[in-house]
Amino acid sequence: FLADRVGIQLQQRGQSDPAARATADRKTWLRKAAKEARDFFCTSLGKDAGRQARDTISKRGISSEMVEKFELGAAPAGWDALRNALMGPDLPEKVLVASGLLKKRSEGDGSYDTFRNRLIFPIHDDTGTPIAFGARALSDEDQPKYLNSQEHDLFHKGRTLYGLHLARATVVKTRQAIVTEGYTDVIACHDAGIENVVGTLGTAMTDEHV
User: Fold this and answer.
1) Residues 190, 108: Cα–Cα separation, whole Å
2) Within 10 A of 179 (CB to CB), how many other CB atoms are there?
3) Contact, 181 vs 199, CB < 8 A?
4) How much of the chain exceeds pLDDT 90, in percent?
5) What does the pLDDT look like over 66-82, one tens digit per residue?
C-alpha cells in the first residue's frame, strides 16, 4: 500500500497474484505517462505555443509563483503535438490512450491529443505525484470550457481533491479544510496565503472526498 502511494513497484518473491501484478504494472505506466505529459505541458507554456495560455494566466491574475507551485502548463493547438513528443518504445500509444492523454480515431488507425489549445492544470495525488489533468479552453469555439482526464486506475474524480498535496500540512495544522469548486479558486486562495484550501473536480462532494 505504501509503495503504491509513492509510485514504487515492489519486486515480489515467489508466487504472486497475476491480477494484482497487472494492476501494479498499469499504475506504473500511468504514472510515467502523467509525469512526462506534465513536463511537456510545463515546457510548452514557455514557448510560442503557450502564448495564449500565458495571456489567460495574466488576465486571471495568477502569479508566477502559483504557476510554478501548481505546475500549470499549456496544450498546443495542434492535433498531435503531445503524441509526437511522448509516444515511442518507452511510452506506447496504448498507455497514452489508457491515461486519457490520447483518443483513438473513430475511423482507421491512430490517435490524437485529447487536450488541444488549453491551459493545463495538473491534478496530483496526495503525495504530489501527477495522475491526471484538467484543461481550460482558450477559445470560445472549444467546448466544453473545462475538460478533465478520463478516470483510470489512479484517478477517480469522486475521491480526488485538487491541491490536497499542497494544502495537507496546513489542513493538519489548522484542523480545517476549505473546499472550493474549481482550480482557480484553490490557486487564488493559496496565493492570498490561505493554504488549507482544496477543490472538487466538477463533481459534488462525496463521502470519499470527506
Assistant:
1) 46
2) 15
3) yes
4) 82
5) 999 999 999 999 999 99
The pLDDT assigned to 16 comes to 65
**Phi, psi angles (nearest 5°) of residue 78:** -70, 170
Report the C-alpha gap between 125 and 113 in whole angstroms. Answer: 23
Phi-psi region of 108 (alpha: psi -120 to 50; beta: other; left: phi over 0): left
Identity of the amino acid at 55? D
Rounded CA separation 103/94 (Å): 10
Alpha-carbon distance of 30 to 99, in angstroms, equals 6
Of 115, 121, 146, 148, whose CA–CA distance to 49 is shortest?
115
Contact between 96 and 33 under an 8 Å Cβ cutoff? The reply is: yes
- pLDDT (mean) for 93-117: 95
Rounded Cα gap, residues 165 and 85, in angstroms: 28
Per-residue three-class SS string for the chain: CHHHHCCCCCCCCCCCCHHHHHHHHHHHHHHHHHHHHHHHHHHHHCCHHHHHHHHHHHHCCCCHHHHHHCCCEEECCCCCHHHHHHCECCECHHHHHHCCCEEECCCCCCEEECCCCEEEEEEECCCCCEEEEEEEECCCCCCCCEEECCCCCCCCHHHCCECHHHHHHHHHHHCCCEEECCHHHHHHHHHCCCCCEEECCCCCCCCCCC
* pLDDT over 80 (residue 11): no
Q: Which pTM value belongs to this model?
A: 0.91
